[in-house]
Specification:
Length: 168
């Protein structure tokens, strides 16, 4: 069973945990990371999730995952990227861009967003077929069209994500 540390709305650790699959209470957030890998052509490496049980089955998304108990965001970002797409990052490859708090009926999240500027050939990616169905590069405009078609994850908030990713 995986456990996650809980945080308050200011990002302070609460000295409480929650188990995967359970709900946290109002005012409690568990940390997840989003890793946006951008190549020199301005395209983002995204993955098609391999879960028929998602709200949007087989939706596209950045590499993402939950921070387990005691794990820092950077550690989780490195781990999730390697587990899901076989790309080994180092903590200094990741640029912290900001955090977003999301209140959701199932669970509340503190999302740490990271940007990686790197050209990664698709031929060098090894996907975890349990988690990932496919990978591809898309421009911001293409992703926004996917959002309009409801094929990209967390479509309600994607414009806010890009405003954070693109700030200097």
């Amino acid at each position: 069973m995986e456990y996650f540390d809980l945080y308050d709305k200011q990002g302070r650790k609460l000295n409480r945990t929650m188990a995967r699959g359970t709900n946290n209470s109002k005012g409690e957030y568990h940390k997840v990371v989003h890793v946006w890998i951008k190549n020199s052509r301005g395209e983002y490496l995204v993955q098609q999730r391999n879960k028929a049980t998602d709200d949007i089955p087989y939706q596209w998304a950045p590499t993402a995952g939950a921070c387990t108990t005691g794990e820092k965001g950077l550690e989780s970002a490195v781990r999730e990227t390697y587990e899901e797409i076989g790309v080994l990052l180092h903590e200094n490859d990741l640029i912290y861009k900001g955090s977003i708090f999301r209140d959701d009926p199932r669970s509340n999240y503190l999302i740490e967003m990271y940007l990686v500027n790197r050209d990664i050939p698709l031929t060098e990616i090894t996907i975890d077929e349990v988690e990932v169905r496919d990978v591809a590069y898309f421009t911001k405009q293409e992703i926004l069209r996917m959002v309009d078609a409801n094929t990209f994850w967390d479509f309600r908030y994607i414009k806010e994500y890009f405003s954070i990713l693109e700030k200097s």
